[in-house]
């Protein structure tokens, strides 16, 4: 079947609806059209791709900047805009294949191979060729086609042919080929890469979550989305072969990962303005500032597999984009993973879908996903969120991992109190450190602690951390191999009235001599969290409990006592009680990053001391221990009312009005009991390796 003459990215019907909406003053279309017009013409006046305030090389925003301009031109042709599009596009088309292969740190051995930047240049030129072809003469059109074919497609295909692992890279390079093939009407290539699209989609977990991180899941889904959209208008029979549901069902994982949106206080690395900015659970290589790409959300609102997935995606777009259409920075919108909306937002807005909230969608408050990400909430839009990287299943697209299993992020009153460090430029020396276990809210183990002297020397001992570099999942004869086991096993995820429990076991991720590292989180209402660790080793080790406090803006007020860490941030507070035999040290000055940037020392990168890393270190090595940490959460002004009392194996947190008691019924933590101030009791039971949460009958 031959393609229609219509654009790959904008049908006549969509164009008419957009222009009619503008004429009628339709608020949403008008708002995003005005924002698109503003950011495009801010670039046009610079007479080049990058303006004077750019912090990135030209590769990184090329796709966004050119596709934005091309869409605006298709809606409202203008001579000045046409000249800008022609000049910038031809400049890229005439750039050498060596530069199309990416920046200097990419492999440039002959024959040249494409990289992520190559795929983005394919997207850039494809959008212009599709939406604004008439800005070029016939000979110039031939130049663009030649650049897409001989530099874009050829280099991207070389990478795909050379590499056999399944992760985001393959999907991005595939999308570079398929989008270019679609706008060039290369039928044979389209058919071949439709099959490659189907393979790349298998990198998602069966439930739609993703094994690398929230941001890389978005990046891969964005690439699949762009390829799908390039086919859906002109090759609908080919688009029908692509299962959007492979990543569309992951909208539940994304929605569960979102925390809130509020202004971000200055941290000395660049102003974020006063607009509300979205925060999310940033496990592995992901940033605290995260919202799914706007075009991707609207794509799912049209094409996802079920009505609730469509409506949930549309609801997230409303929450995180509709009130802030001009929020930047746009220069990192896709490649830099500081996501934004793009050139497909206006066409996709013409397809109406009702938005719903996670609560309206019936998403559970306590839930787990196959990639290990697990969440406990007191309520949707409530006070407390516990986000855990815990037990999971084999990873279908592993990569970009941190040593953060059994780590968690703790949110109260819209403040992140215990945080994940995030990540910054990959070429920073500290990237390996911010990926390591010791900079997350989990345990590390010293195996040579007995000869140490100064406190700061402890970090230089032989430290046992989790393995975070895993084997790749390889394609064998085009078929993905087995999922990669990370060594994390889910023990329990359960919820009953005000009580939630999560348990995970990661001994295999730690390796010898650690046999068992089981961690249980018991959350009671909005104010109480107990963390119980059972750690067993084949030889004595010294356990270190690491707690990373959010001090990204210097506003954390921290007080330490031998067994208590008190943290206040604005209106939120936490008292964390250590109930083991550890000794707390002076804080290590860690890093907490706001957002990833492709270059070092840029906005979003945290400074030393933006994370305060507190450690309790066991006074003596042991082969087995069960240790409780009790955490009280409340408004900062009333935090001092909370106190912990310990009576044998019973640990009680109380503020005089609320009271919860944890009872560790046995040394191995096979039975845990949680008792409210009213005497109601819940038991976590281990029966032949199967854990359950049971509400015990009331007596009396």
Structure description:
The chain is an alpha+beta fold and 700 residues long. It folds into 2 domains: 12-350, Chondroitin AC/alginate lyase (Glycosyltransferase, Alpha/alpha barrel); 366-419 and 461-539 and 558-582 and 615-696, Beta-galactosidase, Chain A, domain 5. Strands 8, 9, 12, 13, 14, 15, 16, 17, 18, 19, 20, 21 and 22 form a 13-stranded antiparallel sheet that branches. It has a 6-stranded antiparallel sheet with strand order 23-24-25-26-27-28, with no helix packed on it. A 5-stranded antiparallel sheet has the order 3-4-5-6-7, covered by helices on one side. Helix 2 (27-44) packs across helix 3, helix 6 runs antiparallel to helix 7 (138-162) and helix 14 packs antiparallel against helix 15 (307-320). InterPro entries: Chondroitin_lyas (IPR008929), Hepar_II_III_C (IPR012480). GO terms for molecular function: lyase activity.
